Amino acid sequence: MRNVNVYYGAFRAVKDVNLQIEARKITAIIGPSGCGKSTVIRCFNRMNELIPGARLTGEVLFHGKNIYDPDVDPVQVRRLIGMVFQKPNPFPKSIYENIAWGARINGYRGNMDELVEESLRQAALWDEVKDDLHKNALALSGGQQQRLCIARTIAVKPEIILMDEPCSALDPIATLKIEDLMRELARDYTIIIVTHNMQQAARVSDYTAFFTVDEDRAGIMVEYGPTNQIFTRPRDRRTEDYITGRFG
User: Is the pLDDT of residue 248 over 90?
Assistant: First the structure.
């Protein structure tokens, strides 16, 4: 991200963000409510464009190309930069079709059974659902639904996976499964996660960006660096105050 500003109508929601994401690492975005965390993560795959009145200035470079250039297809961007949302949102179809549908509309011509199995294995869900692939996905538990959504994202072979508070609707056991899964997936994918849970950020991420709001209520990035440094030796007093619970 280079000098990224995001506006909703006349309101500037995010101000002057410069952020370089490390490949095949997990980057956490933390900060108090209303500081623009979700807005920032949605910049990476042009999801903010779906909100009336939203606009972005600056550049978001992916392989050296600004994904906001007029000749860039946002659908292709979203295939390469997948997203897992706060609330599990499987399609009202079978488990199998949840995985196969996205791959099919993206032109996948290989062995679909193999792709479904591989995606579910990568999402640590295969052993739980392999005998029920034609069961409605909505019958799964919340944690299973979220892992299915991760499998569905993986199936179209993205390079980056965005996760917007993926565990906020889950119980602690399901949350730990998702966290373990993230560490596994980081071997093959670049992961960016928004989380309001600082313990989660400390557990799973390699890098952390701390955001807060300025006097105009715009989200600003205060500090970015290796997670261990941000949590143990923050350079900015505002970061330290947030992490130690003095505000936020």
Answer: no
Phi, psi for residue 18 in degrees, rounded to 5: -125, 120
Q: How many residues are listed for the chain in this entry?
A: 248
Residue 18, Cα to own-chain centre: how many angstroms? 18
Q: Reduce the DSSP state of residue 38 to 3 states and report it.
A: helix
Q: Which two tokens stand for residue 148?
A: 């299915």
> For residue 55, which phi and psi values (nearest 5 degrees)?
-150, 155
Q: Which residues are 125's β-sheet partners?
A: none
Token pair in block for residue 217: 């209520």
- Which CA distances in Å does 81 have to 21, 48, 84, 154, 231? 13, 14, 10, 10, 28
Pairing of strands 54-59, 2-8: antiparallel
- Note the pLDDT tens digit of each residue in 135-167: 999 999 999 999 999 999 999 999 999 999 999
Distance from C-alpha of 174 to C-alpha of 144, rounded to nearest angstrom: 8
Q: What residues does 193 pair with on adjacent strands?
A: 28, 163
| Contact criterion met (CB below 8 Å) for 133 and 139 | no
CA-based nearest residue to 41, from 160, 133, 162, 143: 162
Rg of the chain, C-alpha, whole Å: 18
The answer to whether the beta carbons of residues 206 and 1 sit under 8 Å apart is no
pLDDT in tens, 168-180: 989 999 999 999 9
Mean pLDDT of the chain: 95
- Beta carbons of 226 and 206 less than 8 angstroms apart: yes
**Chain-centroid distance, C-alpha 196:** 13
Whether this prediction's pTM lies above 0.70 is answered by yes
